[in-house]
Amino acid sequence: MISLTRHVLIPVVFLLICIRKYRESTWGKCKNKVKLDGKLAIVTGANSGIGYQIAKELASRGAHVIMACRNLGRAATAVRKIKQELSCSSIIIPMELDLESVDSILLFVDEIEATYSSVHILVNNAGVSHPSSTRCKTKHGFEIHFGVNYLGHFILTNLLMGLLDRETSRIIVISSLMHERGKIYLDDLNLERTISKTDPYANSKLANIYFCKELARRTEGRPISVYAVCPGWVYTNLFRHQNLKWYQILLSLPFAFLFMRTPTQGAQTAIYCATEPDLKNGQVYRDCKEYRSKVNFDQGVSKKLWEISRDFVKTIHSNVKLWDLYGSSFL
């Protein structure tokens, strides 16, 4: 037994650790020291995971951070934890925001507009992941991934555009490498006719990148920059609804050890895009550098997706007035 441990197990463990360390060295880290004093940053889904780490880092750089979360109690707990960890006087405010609900988004935006004169950083981070077989829907009847991961942020960003457009600002859209597996069904975005071999989560992440590119195109010439971020495979509670069996978790452990990032590691590219000077507008970033996606993005698709999304919003809530980015007026 001692011989087995010495000649097999110890070398294997050592090799795995070396592979892990090598992979970590390729993931990229935001190394700039850009300060954000006087800047207002909004981070959705900030009470845990990479959203928490993004909010914490922005606060450490002096930003006034709004932690926009579905559960206000958990957001308040996260705020207290960040303040304890940073031991600084940064202003961090928890606010309720449920991206499933247009009413919640409207109330959130109304409070932001009543309190602040401009927004400098918006990180669209919040997201959900459910088993494809469940076909969960939002409060307004949209497929849950499309409705929360994409459409909720589409509405939020549009409603905040008046504040984002007043000074130099950045919008970071959290996507995923899984966008390369996604498909955009323009005639069935809500998957009501059920495309059996499709991944709704991947579809929503692909929609996020199309949103990024179309928003960058529509804000060209304005003091707004938009970036899509693939954070990598990160250990968070995002997949808490997947109901994995114990043996599935056990089998995934070696892969998780080699490939899964901590929330701090997963947050690096978003922090990089929020702070690094002279990045390319409308591009996808991964590992703190520009990423060349396997997807051949079609401008016609991004334009049509925007128009359909706008029409969806009009049908579910007549009081939502989206920003016309071409003419600086409301639609």
Automatic annotation (TrEMBL):
CDD domains: retinol-DH_like_SDR_c_like. Keywords: Oxidoreductase, Signal. Coiled coil: none annotated. InterPro entries: NAD(P)-bd_dom_sf, SDR_fam. It holds the Pfam family adh_short. The keyword tRNA-binding does not apply. Residues 1-25 form the signal peptide. One of its GO terms (molecular function) is oxidoreductase activity. PANTHER family: PHOSPHATIDYLINOSITOL-GLYCAN BIOSYNTHESIS CLASS F PROTEIN (PTHR43157:SF31), PHOSPHATIDYLINOSITOL-GLYCAN BIOSYNTHESIS CLASS F PROTEIN-RELATED (PTHR43157). This is Uncharacterized protein. It comes from Photinus pyralis.
